[in-house]
Amino acid sequence: MNTQEKTTLARQLNQGSVAPETVGAIAVALAQSLRELHEKGSVFGNLTPDTIEIEDGAVTLLAGARQDGLNPYSSPEQAQGGAVDARSDIYSLGAILYEIVSGRPPVAWENGSPDPDELRRAILEEEPRPLPNASPSMERLVRRCLAKDPLRRWQRIGAVLIELKLAGAAARHARQAPEWKGMVASLGFQLDALERRAAAHQAAHETGAAQLRQSVSALEAAADEQRAHAVSVAESIEAVRSSLSKLENLVHAHGRAILAVEAAVTQTDEVMEHVVEAFDQMHRSMVEHGEAKAFVVSNNGN
Fold this sequence. Notes:
Layout: E1 7-8, H1 9-15, H2 23-39, E2 52-55, E3 58-61, H3 76-79, H4 86-102, H5 116-125, H6 136-145, H7 157-172, H8 178-301
Antiparallel strand pairs: 1-2, 2-3
């Protein structure tokens, strides 16, 4: 690549200055930059020609130039508002390579900017047109990057980089012996097999993760049920305690009532005893008084 001044890929595309012989070099440099990012556990997330800086043959990803929102390079999962991973970057890379080769992104309009809903529909439903003047290997590579289903794309950017280098080698040695072409094709088939196994592992991982999430949800539901049961038991225990407390108060009240009755009985007995004594005293008094009168009468008779 003969570029000396610092510029962005978007400016080069607008100026029509991306030479056909530099396409492979730009593609490899982009894939290498993404591989370095993915190996650190990061995802770029919004790769567009405006976020790619080119200077002296080197490619730099401009994280500060990223813009939120849907664009023609957004992956289907981004268009649906889903989670973004390395395969989203691979889709965006495929869209950029498509534009480098064809002069337009895989979803584009002749005049003006598309309505966001129309852009989302196109990303999710429309298949890009065949690449003009592209080698079969480049066509195949870009098509696989642009697969709507993430599981049907390249699963690792490292695999895309290998495929790009194989495509470049095949182009450089297209006129060499047939056995060279066969070796390149064999390597491509082996890479396909590895990618299929990687996709299968990815699918199994996602299935296992979904099952684990279901198990966790079931455990959380059981825990909630146990907590609710514990609360119910605690409330029942508290109700029993309250009933016992009321019963104890009632027993105490009954005890006090019994004591009061006993005291009243005792007082009644004492009163009755005094009444009896009073009657007895009165009776004795009357008897004595009667005898005295009898004595007086008897004496008067004499």
